[in-house]
Amino acid sequence: MRVLFVxxxxxxxAEAYGILSPLGFYVEQLFIGGKAPNLVEPQxxxxxxxxxxxxxxxxxxxxxxxxxxEAVLVEDSGLFIDSLSGFPGPYSSxxxxxxxxxxxxxxxxxxxxxxxxxxxxxxxxxxxxxxxCTGVCRGFVSENISxxxxxxxxxxxxxxxxxxxxxxxxxxxxxxxxxxxxxxLKGVSELLNPPSK
Length: 197
Ligand code: IMP
Prior knowledge:
The chain has 6 helices and 6 strands. It is of the alpha/beta class and 197 residues long.
């Protein structure tokens, strides 16, 4: 089954492909008129709300096109830092673009509680139904920027199961086996294709 991922982020597409292909789904980035549609991200307190709003836009873009009967996927993620009361959370994109990774490390300078989690909400529309699933990856904010694979906050986020390595020091397979996105997409795959009893 084909899943059309509406995102401008190629890294997310590559990860979704790696996660969903072994489960029997073929992930493709959606292009309309040769372009990845630009979805508006509302200002909201919850990433669930942002994902649902993005899905509404994505579905209306596919209505009346050759894609309208296919599974349409969107996803929203954020880094929630315990000692910053969940900041940057839903503002992760803006914060990454403005103060960047070094800005986050400065905000946490001298902080001993480095606990944080990455959350992803995957939302799919298929045959008139909306299915959503949240994935969480607990971990820590590192003291330094390390590693060069992955994207976004990967060089400063150390998942609990990663033996002290940042996500940017993991292989794509290792990252997806423990990541927020891995859990969210596996959850959604089960909703799309429930295991037979
Ligand atoms: P969004 O889901 O595209 O809004 O992502 C919010 C912010 O989190 C952006 O700065 C992304 O680059 C970053 N981000 C999303 N997923 C990941 C990830 O898996 N690792 C690291 N950063 C991520």
